[in-house]
Design brief:
The protein has 16 helices and 22 strands. The chain has 463 residues and is of the alpha/beta class.
Length: 463
């Protein structure tokens, strides 16, 4: 964590000291009284329905040493060491940017419409073979979360792998200029955030903002299967010199997975048509083998051998609810992919389920895909049209938008094999009435649908 004096922090954020000795030592930061630690600098973030300044006294009662204080919120509490700033959030971001400049750490930035968390996990696992590594925790990938992640690093952190999320233009540029990465990765361009960015071209432009903060001569590993990235690259703000590595599913890329074999608990592959070495990841699906190519590119950039990269990939621990294999009480296999969903990621998960062998019937549970803008009905119907009774035995759709998925799929399936629900408990009971111990169930939906609740019930239920 950041350890600096009160006076040093004030200088880093261009703030004015009130009520405190400048030699006072600050150890770490927190924006939440529920996580405040002894010696922390309290960051009073202002939201739509809350004002962190209202909790400053509580933060000090719980051990905070000092606080930022936004100047339009009046005077800070009497006797409380405070640094008065123009804007609390901007000051947090300045603090993180200055601290990052003072650290010897090298940073890898990862963004993309899908797969960025899994790719982040793979890259971190690879780099950890040789370096002291930190990676983004939970959803700390935005304009508050990324600065907090940087401020959690200590002086001994050698490499950090940071997710960069966004909802609109300019957000990734802000994050990359704070982080100043030595390597940048774009996993893919999908349809999430269409309601804000208007088109896939807009999404690609927003993701390419990651290059604005990339250091001179840095690595740019990007999905070569996506022509939009190639076509827009010349227009992106970027250093004069970058090392470009295209990865993807086909042999026209610099890195591509070959001899891919997929099972329910992982995938194995080689590189670029070679027979050896073989790489294994504890994640099923060809799309995850493609994302592993980004980890190979980053590992090589930072001096790891292919054997070291293979070791790291094999030891990675995926973040939960990303195609997490779970075994039910009676042997039913559940693939929990309920963390998020988009048209591209849903099709990839369906493709995975098609490839798996050794199970009885294949049951698909699909929740709404959110944040798709005006074309949300078309995207849900497209998923329905991709479902075939030759490949899936039952389809369960949950949520108002998934009604379109069910309507599109229903004519192709035998009667009763496609079912739509607006009640999660009723859906789980229905699945339990048809599922057998040797079957496999894929659960996929946007985070807002909370389908992990259905997953847990399916794991616990006695068939």
């Amino acid at each position: 964590m950041m350890i600096r004096t009160f006076g040093e922090v004030a200088a880093m954020v261009s703030g004015t000291v009130r009520n405190g000795d400048e030699s006072l030592v600050i150890r770490g930061v927190s924006k939440d009284t529920r996580t405040i630690g002894a010696g922390n600098l309290y960051i009073p973030i202002i939201g739509e329905r809350f004002d962190g300044h209202d909790y400053a006294k509580e933060a000090f009662r719980l051990g905070a040493t000092a606080t930022l204080w936004q100047q339009d919120r009046g005077e800070p509490p009497e006797g409380v060491p405070a640094i008065v700033v123009d804007d609390a959030l901007s000051a947090l971001q300045r603090l993180a940017a200055r601290y990052r400049e003072q650290l010897p750490v090298k940073i890898v930035g990862v963004t993309g419409s899908n797969g960025k968390t899994t790719t982040k996990d793979m890259i971190a696992a690879v780099l950890a073979v040789k370096y002291n590594v930190r990676k983004t925790e939970g959803n700390l990938n935005g304009d508050i979360g990324l600065p907090l992640m940087i401020l959690q690093m200590d002086e001994g952190t050698e490499l950090a792998v940071l997710e960069m999320g966004m909802r609109g233009f300019g957000e990734i540029e802000l994050l990359t200029r704070i982080a100043k990465p030595e390597a940048a990765v774009i996993t893919m361009i999908g349809e999430a955030h269409l309601e804000r960015l208007g088109s896939r071209t807009g999404i690609a432009r927003a993701k390419l903002e990651i290059l604005a903060g990339l250091k001179e001569g840095g690595l740019f590993a990007y999905n070569g299967d996506e022509p939009l990235l190639e076509s827009l690259l010349s227009q992106a703000s970027k250093p004069e010199s970058i090392i470009g590595v295209r990865f993807g599913s086909g042999a026209d890329n610099d890195l591509w997975p070959s001899h891919v074999s997929v099972e329910a608990d992982g995938a194995a592959f080689t590189l670029n048509g070679a027979k050896k070495p073989e790489f294994r990841i504890p994640l099923p699906g060809r799309h995850n083998a493609v994302n592993a190519m980004a980890a190979v590119a980053v590992g090589r950039h930072f001096g790891l051998s292919d054997e070291e990269i293979a070791s790291g990939l094999g030891a990675m621990k995926p973040t939960g609810m990303r195609i997490e294999r779970m075994r039910g009480a009676t042997g039913l296999t559940v693939l929990n992919d309920a963390y998020n969903a988009s048209p591209a990621s849903t099709l990839a998960s369906l493709e995975l389920l098609k490839e798996l062998i050794g199970f009885g019937r294949k049951i698909v549970v699909l929740g709404d895909m959110l944040e798709l803008g005006d074309e949300e009905e078309r995207f849900h119907r497209n998923i329905g049209s991709a479902l075939s009774p030759d490949q899936f035995d039952y389809v369960y759709a949950f949520g108002p938008l998934s009604r379109h998925t069910a309507d599109e799929a229903m004519p192709s399936f035998p009667q009763g094999r496609v079912r739509w629900f607006d009640n999660k408990e009723e859906m789980v009971r229905d699945i339990a009435s048809v599922a057998r111990s040797q079957d496999i169930v894929l659960v996929k939906g946007s985070r807002g649908m909370r389908l992990e609740e259905a997953v847990q019930r399916l794991v616990d239920v006695q068939l």
